[in-house]
Amino acid sequence: MAGLAQGVDWVGADRLRRRCALTVLELLFPLMSVVAAAAIVYSGSVEAWSPQLLVAAGVLTLAKLVVGQVTGAFEGRWRFVGLRDAMIIVRAALLAGAAGLVVLQRLQLVDTSLRLVAADTSIYIVLACGTRLVSRWLHEWGRRVVAGRSAPFRRVVIVGAGESGCAVIKNMLASPKLRMDPVAAVDDDVSKHYSRLQGVPVVGPIVELPTVVRKYQTDEIIIAMPSATGEQIRRVVDACLAAHTPYRIAPDPENLLNGHGRDGGGVGALRAVQPTDLLGRPQVELDVSALRAELNGARVAITGAAGSIGSELTRQIAKLHPAVMYLIDRNENDLYFLCDELVRHQVHAAHVEVIQDVREQRRMARVLSEIQPTHLFHAAAFKHVPLMEFHLVEAVENNILGTWATLEAARSAGVEKFVLISTDKAVRPTSVMGGTKRFVELLVAEYTRETSMRSVIVRFGNVLGSNGSVVPLFQRQIAEGGPVTVTSREATRYFMTTAEAAQLVLQAVALPESDGKVAILDMGTPIRIWDLAERLIRMWGLRPGSDIEIVETSLRPGEKLHEELWWATENAAPSRHPQIMLATVGTAPRSVVGLIPMIRELVDREEEILLRGILESSVGLSNDNGNGAHPPVQAPASPSHALGA
Asked: Which tens digit of pLDDT belongs to each residue from 368-398?
């Protein structure tokens, strides 16, 4: 068998040898099929080969050669033959048979022309397809034998017996260099049990994975369930951990050619299970036509472009064919890396990097007047809650005065739509960061009501895996051997992926009814942070509390036990998009625009207590989370009073 496989590969290795062999076989197949058909129809009688039958055999042979050449049935590479190639051969054989039948009946060469043509066509299909499939099997088998001599193959169990699982198995069998041998598959769909995928048996449900792993002496588990929910992935991961076997996840085959598979395709794109997989949120339903109508040909500016949300907005907007993107950030390193990524991934959208601090109003005005954007996405902000509690002046200067400077510059430059990226911490704010973000929500709404510039405020919760978020912190603590620190056993947070957040931001912007509103993204069900920590520890193959300790600390200054997405008074209501709610922004007890001069003076004087008082009186900043970090302070009534003039 090995010698036969080597012979097939020897013929296929040289173009001339391959062409000669294929020509001979393509001539032999029609001759063999018609001879066999005549023998069957005429019971193998030699006397039956009359001159008329010889002419009929020639007609059928010539028909198959001509039709095969015209339809390209002879052009497929045998070692890569598949169902599509087989269908081309079947179509060519049927066309040739039909043509031959017409000729035979017109010439009245034989009385049993229909039986002869049917037998001839059937035998030809079996010969042509069967030989190709055997050749492919010999080629793949030979490669696996040769590859297995240098190192043994890893025995793999596939979780998921659907299209993705079938594609993974097919890729493994066709790629010996992967050194992966699929030995079994499991799936919860009972109708798939005891069937086979590419020859691999489907042996039972996922719950039996530990037993299957032991029975088949498995080295690795591959999860091939692209449409699975977060709960299903968590259950599979638990089964993998119970089996004490390494596991990875396969990409969605549909994503490999549509731009989502950035790291390649096929089994080569296998990766470790990420926290985002455990989130398991449904894919965002994008109204691409609405997005393109909004941003196709637009001049887009993005502040904070090098940050987690800003950079993902850049990637998503680039797909919508804007005229140009201006990427504004003061972090030169991350901005450089973002632009380098766009070049490496051959993003064709024109983009210009701009090193600029949004707090510098004069320079922001100059920059925006030069680039004349139609849309501005304001994602630049300080976001770390505990850190901003001890840097109140900096938080106010960057988040409030930076937004004010950007608003003023945008109005002067004729920006059509201003998009503010906000946070769930702006709802009933108990932190400086949340208070500043609620202030700028009111600021943007009030400012754009008095100008022709339209605005959309987009509010959402934590972005899973973003810079400084809880997941990278937990992963680092686990890598260091623990302990993993959780502020409270009962603390919960809303999470979504960076890509999902950016896509929903764009979708909210494209909703006509979102102008002047707060667009609140559907964050799903809050996740208990303690559960997330335990899950991450188990993903590392460790045991919470035994291998890695989880330590409950306490809520830090400004932190809440539970987050909220809107106030009851905001009248949040569903929009036309199922994952976006729209709410009214509300108003402050006094004009927040009128507070800007006072805030600027207090920032210059670094009057931290008075700045906190402004946040308390204008947006209701409090310490209701129970920290007792700061006592309430009355805000000054006027700039002169505040400065003691």
From this structure: 999 999 999 999 999 999 999 999 999 999 9
CA distance 418 to 377: 6
Please indicate, yes or no, if residue 640 is contained in any of the structural domains: no
Q: Are residues 222 and 120 in the same domain?
A: no
* 524 — pLDDT class (breaks 50, 70, 90): confident
Mean pLDDT calculated for residue range 42-64: 71
Residue carrying the six token digits 């905001």? 570
Apex 531 CA angle, 527 and 537, nearest 5? 130
End residue of a domain, out of 131, 147, 163? 147
Distance CA 45, CA 43 (A): 6
My answer on whether 221 and 355 are in the same domain is no
Yes or no: say if 426 and 459 are a contact pair by the CB < 8 Å rule: yes
Whole-structure pTM value: 0.69
State which amino acid sits at residue 645. A
Q: Phi/psi zone of residue 93: left (φ > 0), alpha (ψ -120 to 50 degrees), beta?
A: alpha
**Residues 6+ positions from 401 with CB-CB distance below 8 Å:** 359, 361, 596, 599, 600, 603
Q: DSSP assignment of 579-639, as one string?
A: TEEEE-----SS-SGGGHHHHHHHHHHT-HHHHHHHHHHHH----TTTT--S---PPPSSH
Mean local confidence (pLDDT), 36-53: 69
Is the pLDDT at 243 greater than 50? The verdict is yes
Residue 151's pLDDT band (cuts 50, 70, 90): low
**CA dihedral for 595, 598, 601, 604, sign (positive or negative):** negative
Task: Decide: helix, strand or coil at residue 219.
Answer: coil
Percent of the chain with pLDDT strictly greater than 90: 33
Whole-angstrom Cα distance, residue 536 to residue 82? 41
Q: 3-class DSSP state for residue 391?
A: coil
Closest CA relative to residue 95, chosen from 72, 114, 68, 116: 68
- Among 506, 610, 136, which residue's Cα sits nearest to residue 290? 506
C-alpha span between 535 and 544 (Å, rounded):
8
For the stretch 481-496, pLDDT in tens is 989 999 899 998 888 8
Q: Which two tokens stand for residue 581?
A: 């709610």
Burial of 370 (0-12, 13-18, 19+ CB in 10 A): exposed
- Domain of 237: which CATH number? 3.40.50.720
| Domain count of the fold of the chain | 3
- Can you name the residues that pair with 156 across neighbouring β-strands? 182, 220
Sign of the Cα torsion 279, 283, 286, 288 reads positive
559 and 510 fall within a common domain: yes
Token pair 């009359």 in the structure block, residue: 50
What is the per-residue pLDDT for 274?
A: 74
- Residue 108 sits in the same domain as residue 233: no
Helix (H) or strand (E) run with residue 477 in it: helix 470-479
Name the residue among 45, 247, 28 with its Cα closest to residue 157.
247
Residues in the chain: 645
The yes-or-no verdict on residue 637 having pLDDT over 50 is no
State whether residue 524 is helix, strand or coil: coil
Inter-residue contact 392 to 611 (CB < 8 Å): yes
- Best-predicted range by mean pLDDT among 97-111, 190-204, 537-551? 190-204
User: Which spans in 109-157 are helix H?
Assistant: 113-150
Residues 14, 136 within the same domain: yes
Domain extent for 221: 151-273
pLDDT winner (highest mean) among 20-34, 501-515, 556-570: 501-515
Query: Residue 264: its pLDDT value, please?
Result: 42
Give DSSP secondary structure letters for 485-500.
EES-TT-EE-EE-HHH
The angle formed by the CA atoms of residues 526, 528 and 532, to the nearest 5 degrees, is: 115
pLDDT of residue 635: 37
